[in-house]
Write a structure and sequence with these properties.
mainly alpha; Four Helix Bundle (Hemerythrin (Met), subunit A); 2 domains; 0% strand; globular
């Protein structure tokens, strides 16, 4: 696999680990609030759904990185074994202790690859479990979402992507699984909108466009990545109006980092894109954290 794929995947893993996660929903349950406001409060399953989607993105990205390392280990081990064989045939001077040492190294390499394979299978089992939870939580909030205003088109898109992700996991397709998990994250914005999440839906759309464009660009689909840029800018500008971020310095840094990311995509500069994506996603994570803290303080 292209090392640049692994680099953007590592960025995705790092960013999601650093994010505060969840919907940034306030835990304030003051009895003095009107019943109507309480009724509009996002269901707990919405928060769990987002957490599971983010976790699946992280786990799938980790699997791809793990697979890349696993393949590299096999290639190195095979190459070393081939060199040792050629050396034995040409010189035939290897001592018993050297032969024993070589056998020990080979056994160690085999154990490492076996351990990696076991870790991969455990990851797939974990992903299957999380996917089941996503299906269950979606079932619990689906009717509420429809009543709250989720359109037929939005509902169908969410279910179609969820089905695609299910097939990816059952067939252990890492890259398409990651792409569909990112797509599902993008569709989560529709739920955040109808349930009036404390974090505006445009936040999730903005982060989705960055992740999706980054993966597409690194896969060579630059045209598709470039086509996302107007939506990225529109969602970001809309988010700024709705969120009313008080930290002006952080907001300015985020503005510039998103502009830099867009420029890297337009210029088809892969190495710069990776760096700018990391900075932009990190800034968004800080904004989400800031908004979550502000809501809890109210």
């Amino acid at each position: 696999m292209n090392n640049k794929y692994v680099r953007i995947i590592i960025v995705i893993i790092t960013i999601f680990i650093l994010l505060p996660g969840c919907s940034g929903k306030s835990k304030d349950n003051k009895a003095s609030k009107p019943n109507m406001e309480a009724a509009q409060k996002p269901p707990q399953e919405l928060k769990t759904l987002l957490t599971d989607i983010e976790s699946m993105i992280t786990d799938l990205a980790g699997l791809i990185a793990m697979e890349n390392k696993y393949v590299s280990q096999i290639k190195i081990a095979d190459s070393q074994a081939s060199k040792n064989t050629e050396s034995d045939q040409s010189k035939n001077e290897q001592t018993d202790s050297q032969a024993k040492s070589g056998q020990q190294n080979k056994s160690s390499d085999q154990k490492k690859t076996a351990d990696t394979s076991d870790q991969q299978q455990k990851k797939w089992q974990t992903l299957t479990s999380k996917l089941k939870d996503i299906h269950k939580n979606w079932n619990k909030i689906e009717s509420e979402a429809i009543k709250a205003g989720l359109t037929v088109t939005e509902r169908n898109k969410f279910e179609t992507i969820m089905e695609n992700l299910t097939l990816d996991i059952s067939q252990q397709k890492q890259m398409s699984g990651l792409q569909d998990a990112i797509e599902l994250y993008g569709q989560y914005a529709s739920l955040a909108k109808v349930f009036k999440s404390d974090i505006p839906a445009e936040y999730y759309k903005t982060k989705y466009e960055i992740m999706a464009a980054g993966v597409e660009a690194l896969g060579g689909d630059w045209d598709q990545a470039v086509n996302r840029l107007p939506r990225l800018k529109d969602n970001w500008n809309s988010f700024k109006v709705k969120a009313k971020v008080k930290n002006e310095k952080l907001l300015n840094c985020s503005d510039l980092s998103i502009d830099d990311f867009a420029a890297a995509v337009s210029g088809k500069k892969i190495d710069i894109l990776i760096i700018k994506a990391e900075i932009a996603l990190a800034n968004l994570g800080q904004i989400e954290k800031s908004l979550s803290q502000s809501k809890k303080a109210q």
